[in-house]
Amino acid sequence: MATNIISYTYDRQDVQAGIMHIGVGNFHRAHQQFYTNKVLENPDQRQWGICGVALLPSDEALVQKLRQQTGTYTLTVCGRDGHDEVHQIGSLIDIIWGVDDPIAVTDKIASEAIRIITLTITEGGYNIDKATNTFMFGNEAIKHDLLYPHQPKTVFGFVAEGLRKRMAAGHEGLTILSCDNLQHNGNTTKTAFTSFIDAQDKALAQWVASHVTFPNSMVDRITPATLPEDVIRLTAKSGIDDTVPVYCEDFIQWVIEDNFIAGRPDWQRVGVEFTDDVTAYENMKLSLLNASHTLLSYPAFLAGYRNVDDAMHDRNLAQLLRDFMDIDSTPYVPVPGNTDLAVYKQTLIERFANRSVSDQLSRLCFDGISKFPVYILPTLANMIRDDKDLTRMAFLIASYRHYLKYKVDETGQSFTIAEPWLTPDDKQLINSDNPVDFLTLSAFNGINLASADSFVALYRDFVERIHCTGVSAVLASLVN
Prior knowledge:
Blueprint: E1 4-7, E2 17-22, H1 26-30, H2 32-39, E3 49-54, H3 60-68, E4 73-78, E5 84-89, E6 92-97, H4 102-110, E7 116-119, E8 128-129, E9 134-135, H5 140-147, H6 155-169, E10 174-178, H7 185-200, H8 202-211, E11 212-213, E12 217-220, H9 228-238, E13 246-249, E14 253-257, E15 273-275, H10 279-302, H11 308-312, H12 315-329, H13 341-352, H14 361-365, H15 368-385, H16 391-406, H17 424-431, H18 453-469, H19 471-479
Parallel strand pairs: 1-5, 2-3, 2-7, 3-6, 4-13, 7-10, 10-11, 14-15
Antiparallel strand pairs: 4-5, 8-9, 12-14
Helix pairs in contact: 4-6, 6-7, 7-8, 10-12, 10-15, 10-16, 12-19, 16-18, 18-19
């Protein structure tokens, strides 16, 4: 089918950056930039362009490529009906690489024009101990930023120094808005940044208390990593020369607590929902979409699949997800607004199976240590409390252990795990031959799994069976 090209029509020279975004990855460029690009078509919204900020050494290639394209890029929206649209995105009007020019980052935060800082720094990037919900000060880079506030290395140090300059200049406050998949992400962001700032600068902490707001939000759009072969494919399909294209699904949602101290774009004109409380929306999404992604990822990867759509066309894996959503998750999902939960769950199955998107399972497997506490443990704790059937949860955690411990799938293909937040203690627990030791992994700190006898019995059985017969055979026995 022909691809429809949709370009922005506003003059980028008329756009001023009112938002600074930290973490200019694919999801941000498919989600927040997509909405902002649309709202900038309104002449009265031109003060809400986005200045992107990258803080990691590994970001250099992306920064240079975006700069060569003056921040513009293409976003291919892949329809479930096979019809794709290519959007030319112009809302990223500037980009700063903090490694190369840290002062430019803090000066931009201090700029009077910037009224919102948005973040996609991953679930683990907020540096919060999941068990105690407290900021962790032991990291060496955190220690450096506390000692040397004018030479920041972390996102917390950069934001603190920028706000300190802003306070000194006498400018008004701003809003810090998380766009990461965390339950109550605004509360988590507030805990992280205010804890750091209070430890570094008491005067700044007092200013932040009355000049910075931290709204909660819920974000949703499946956005795969763009591999080198995807760049070739997307460029050929669109006919537009783009070294940093992004592609995503056709579904999109953004629900935000309307708590902006210094104004915001009229994103509601382009489909963003504003509310007084996002809790029901985020619970639904995290408990169904994100939890199902986690449940799918490790068994599917161990079975030899590498793409989500291929896995979803495996009848047993699709049934595993349906059973999990209907039996395990739904009893604990408050339905927001006028949402039809049956339609929402069916749409999830269709989204996961979208052949045009073909998301990577490796992306879903990435950083499970940070994902389990957010997506899985809340429901699992409720299920243990209510004496529910723990079969699928035990199967998931046994699969996760096998994935981390053996690093080979049942076809004999070895792989490398990507778990940036594993601790030395975690690695010992993974290597232990006693499977119960794994249940004390840092990812499970929020719940004492080893003391839940009914769970442990199921889990030990799955560990043994997956090791002996492979994950596919065990899964078949689960759903048939």
